[in-house]
Amino acid sequence: MVKKAYKSDPSFLENNTEYYIQYFEFIKNESIWNNSGQYWLGKEYGNRAKALLNGNPDIAMVPIKSETYYYNKDTMNIGNQ
Asked: I need a surface site. Which of 5, 39, 47, 81 has the fewest CB within 10 A?
């Protein structure tokens, strides 16, 4: 039997299952917003997922203010401008 050359520690998401579920919700929402043409909202959800991967739940769980990222196709503005 061959020994591993390294020993990995469990990641933040493996230790905290509630954040693991939230991580997949962020990934799902990122895909939904990107497929709807709202790339700024998709990018924000992607940033939240990366924050959870890095072990920063305080940054990831701040509410997303979608009105600042939503693209209005009639006025061609992003957000409430």
From this structure: 5
DSSP bridge pairs for 72? 77
Cβ atoms of 51 and 60 within 8 Å: the answer is yes
* Tally of CB atoms within 10 A around 7: 6
User: How many structural domains compose the chain?
Assistant: 1
As a whole number, mean pLDDT of residues 19-24 equals: 94
Residue 22 domain-assigned (yes or no)? no
Q: What is the mean pLDDT of the chain?
A: 85
CB-CB contact of 48 with 60 (8 Å): yes
Beta-carbon contacts of 81 under 8 Å, excluding residues fewer than 6 positions away, are 75
